[in-house]
Amino acid sequence: MYGIFRECWVDLKRYGGLENGSLWMIFWLLLLISSIYLIVKESDVRKKIVFGAMPFVVVAGFLFPVTKKLFVKLAGIESANTYYRILWIIPMYVTIAYAFTKFIASLNSAVKKYVAACVSALIIAVTGSYVYANEYVYKAENIYHLPQNVIDICDRIKPTEDEGTVKAAFTPELVYFVRQYDPNILMPYGRDYVDHKYYTGVLKLMQEEEMKTQELLYYTRADLDRYIIFPTDKKLDEDITIFDVKLVDTIDGYNIYEDTLISENREKERENYVNTRQNMYE
Amino acid sequence: MLMTIWSVVRLIIFMLIVPMCMGQLFKFILKKELRTLGITFVLGFFIYSGIIQIISILCILTVASKPNAFETCFKGCLLAVLLFAVAGCFRFDKNMLKKPDIKSLSTDTRIFYGIFFALVIFQMVMAVSTRIFDGDNSFYVTQSIIAQKTGAMYTVDPNKGGIIPVDGRHALAAIPMWIAFIAKAAGVHSTIVTYTVWPVLIIPLVYFIFHEIAKVLFADNTAMIPIFMIMVNMLMIFGNVSIYTPATFFLMRTWQGKSMLTSIAFPAILLIFLWMFKETGGEEKTLSQKASFWGLLTLVNMFSGMCSEMGVMFGAGLVALLTLVLLYSSKRMTVLLGAFCSVIPNLVYVVLYKLM
Q1: What is the rounded CA–CA span in Å between residue A250 and residue A237?
Q2: Cβ-proximal residues to B93 (8 Å cutoff; 6+ apart), any chain
Q3: How far apart are CA B261 and CA B307, in angstroms?
Q4: Given the DSSP bridges, would you call strands A245-251 and A227-231 parallel, antiparallel or unpaired?
Q5: Which residue of A has its CA nearest to B245?
Q6: For residues A149 and A121, is the Cβ–Cβ distance under 8 A?
Q7: How far is CA B205 from CA A18, A48, B42, in A?
Q8: Alpha-carbon gap: B310 to the closest alpha carbon of chain A (Å)
Q9: pTM of the model
Q10: Which of A256, A271, A282, A272 minimizes the C-alpha distance to A200?
Q11: DSSP state of B275
C-alpha cells in the first residue's frame, strides 16, 4: 500500500511540474492557499465546500492507495498512467481565480485593487509556465499546421486515383505527420512504433547511424514500400542506387528514393531479392 | 477563390449557425433568464454533439465494417442536423440579438473587459499561427481524415494504414467523427478544421462558460467579473507547468476529446450546479424548472462520454460530488433522482464499453 501511495505522490508532484525542480510545490501551494482563503472568507457554505473543501477531498482521494487500485481495476492496467486525470475534477482554475478576485474585491480603495490585480496576475505568470514557450510549439508553416517538408514530400509521392494507395518508408521523425495529410500513403511503421519502441526492421535500421543498404531494401521490399525517404546526410554502407532504386527528388534535406522493382511491378525480381536474404535478416 | 469563400461560408454554417439554431429549437428547456444568445449557443453545441454522437455510435455498432461506413454516418448526421437546425431557424428569438449594455459599465470595468477580450483574441491568434506537436494527434487527427477521405470509421490503422478491428475505447469517443463531419460538410481537409478552425470556436466557448461561472460567483459584485476572467486567462496561458494540467491540454491539444472534457465538460458541470445552488431555497419550483438543469446536465454528461472514455467515469464522479453538496444545501432527496437520470448516458457508455 505504501508503494502505491508513493506512486500517487510522485504523480501529484509530476502534475505540478516535478520536471521544473521544486516548482511543483508552488502550483499546489497556490491551490492550497486559495482553498484555505475561501474556507475562511466565503460566506456561502456551498461555495465554501466546492472551492474550499472539495480540492482537499479530491487530492486526499487521489493519494489514497485504494482509489488507485480501484481505478486500475475499472480502467485496466493500460490506463494506469492516466490516473492523474482524476485531478481534473478539481475546479482548480476557478478556485484560484475566485480566491484572488475575492481578495481583490475585499480591498477598500480602487488603487489597492488595481495594484492587487496586477500583482496577482504577476504571481500567476511568474509561478507558472508560459504555454507558448513550450519546446513543442512552432510557428505554423501552412494552414494544415503540419511541417511543410512533409506536405511537399507527400505531394511528390501521393498515389493517383487509379493507384489508390502507395506504401512509403519514412524516416522516424516524419511518420507523425504523413497520414494526417494523406491517409492514402501507407507506412511500414507509424508513430506507435516510434513512441512505444515497438520492433520493426525498417525502424531499427532508420535509427542506426549507418544503415545497411541491402538489409533496408530487404525490409522495404518485403513490405512493398515503393518509396524510401530519409535525410540526405544519412549514411549507407552501400550506394542504394545500384540496387534498382532511383533518387526521384530531394526536398528540404530529405532524399526520396523510388524502388523500381515495385514501381515497375517487377514482382519476380522483388520476390527473388527478398527470398534470397530471408535467412540472413529474419 | 470562390470555392474557398463557399467553404468558409459552410464552416460558419456548420460551426456557428447550426448549433445556434439547435439551441433556439430546444431553448424551452432553459429557464427564462438563461435564454441568452450565448447560453442558447452552448445548449445547441451540446445537442449538436449529442446528435453526432448517437448517429456515429449507431454506425460504429452496425455498419463500421462496411466500406464507406462514414458516408452512411455523414448522410444520417447531415439529415438530422439540418432538420433540427432549419426547425430552429423558425423559432429564432430576435430579442436575443440586442446589444449588451456597455454604457452602464464603469470605465475601469470596460478596461478590464478590454484586457480580457485581448487575452482571448491573443490565444485564438496563437492557436491559428502556431503548430503544436503532440504524438496523440497522429491518432485522433488521422482518424478524422481517414473517415473523410476513405469513408472508414475506426477500421483503418491511423498509424500505418491497413485494416484493424474497431477498438471500442477509442471509437466511442466520437469527437474525431464530429470534426470529420464538419470537414466533409464544408469541403475542407479535416486536418485544417482540426488545427486551424476548431480552436477558433472552442477557445471563446470555453471562456464563455467561465464567464457564466463568474456571473454566478460575483452576482452581487459584477465589476469583479472581468478581473476573474483575466485571472482565468492568465492561469491558462501560464498553466503549462506540466504536460498533465488542464491548461496544457486546453491550449496545446484544443481539438482532442480529453482537452474538451477538462475545458468544456467539467466547467459546464460546475456551472450547472452553481445555477442549481442559486435556485435552492426561495419558492418551490415546478417540475419543469427542476428538470431543466438536470436535462442540461444529461447533455453535458453525454458530451463527456463523447470526449473520452475517462469522461464517463470522471464526469459521473464530479456530478456525484456536487450532488452531495446540493443534497446538503437543498435537503431534497429528489436531487438524487435528478442526478441519477443525468448520469444515464454514462451508464449507457459503460455498457457499450463492456460490449465492445
Answers
A1: 20
A2: B24, B27, B35, B40
A3: 6
A4: unpaired
A5: A15
A6: no
A7: 31, 27, 8
A8: 8
A9: 0.94
A10: A282
A11: H
Does A199 contact B at CB distance below 8 Å? no
- Write down the ipTM of this complex: 0.94
> Which residues of chain A does B146 touch, with a Cβ-Cβ cutoff of 8 Å?
179, 183
Q: Are the beta carbons of B251 and A131 separated by less than 8 Å? A: yes
Instruction: Report yes or no: A14 at the B interface, CB cutoff 8 Å.
Output: yes
Burial of B262 (0-12, 13-18, 19+ CB in 10 A): buried
Helix (H, G, I), strand (E, B) or coil at A144: coil
Where does residue B156 fall: left (phi above 0), alpha (psi -120 to 50 degrees), or beta otherwise?
Answer: beta
Chain B touched by A101 (CB under 8 Å): yes
Residue A197, Cβ density class (10 Å: 0-12 exposed, 13-18 middle, ≥19 buried)? exposed
Longest CA pairwise span in chain B (Å): 62
What is the distance, to the nearest Å, from the Cα of residue B15 to the centroid of all Cα atoms in its chain? 11
- The DSSP call for residue A158 is P
Residue B120, min C-alpha distance to chain A (Å): 14
Contact B217 A183 (CB under 8 A): no
Residue by residue, pLDDT tens for chain A (282 residues) are 888 999 999 999 999 988 777 678 888 999 999 999 999 999 999 999 999 999 999 999 999 999 999 999 888 877 788 999 999 999 999 999 999 999 999 998 999 999 999 999 999 999 999 999 999 999 999 999 999 999 999 999 999 988 999 999 999 999 999 999 999 999 999 999 999 999 999 999 999 999 999 999 999 999 999 999 999 999 999 999 999 999 999 999 999 999 999 999 999 999 999 999 888 887
- Tell me whether A25 touches chain B (CB under 8 Å): no
CA–CA dist B14, B343 (Å, integer): 28
